[in-house]
Specification:
- By secondary structure, the chain is of the alpha/beta class.
- It has 5 helices and 12 strands.
- It has helices at 9-18, 46-56, 59-64, 74-77, 179-198, and strands at residues 38-40, 69-72, 82-83, 88-89, 96-100, 109-114, 116-117, 132-137, 139-143, 149-155, 157-165, 168-171.
- The chain is globular.
- The chain starts with 8 loop residues before the first helix and ends with a helix.
- The relative contact order is 0.18.
Length: 200
Amino acid sequence: MVDHGAGNLVSITQGLERVGAETMLAAGPGQLEGADGVVLPGVGTTGAAMERLEQAGFIDPLVEWTGPLLGICVGLQLLFEGSSEDDSTCLGLMPGRVERLRETPRLPHIGWNDLLMTDDDPLWEGLPERPTFYFVHSYAPAPADSGLIIGEATYGTRFCVAVRDGLRVGVQFHPERSGPNGLRVLSNFLAECRTRSEAP
């Protein structure tokens, strides 16, 4: 788990440990070595999160990371090229930008919302047809490649809430605060990490 000073680290750690993960908070990039997977959490703004990642020396190691990577909330937004929230440059791991939600009842979007799974992705294995998850955000990614989208939700308008590019995945909702459905998502990510670590 990337500990860059911005994330619901305790709850995420507890959620991962509940599904059988051995977790470690990485305060520096050297602690990523030997990990089977990386979780990139985040709260607040993308600009502030990127500044903290840069100060801790995480930018290049995250860009070069080739194993399973899960971005949560702002951690998902950091995977893209930039954000209109503060005109910040992000990690650029996926094409597209993060945009403010439009035509919504109010912002921020806080609370439970149905997930529309737009792809038969391993992250969704074992979930019910229309699972609900907990959201807290005002911005969401707008991928330049629609093929990256594996999940959407509707709040006023329909928007992207989950993406995948190879072993890199991200979710806008908070699985660590989403009950059994969230634990299932974390468990599925852990399964990918285990499969990767066991590969010859």
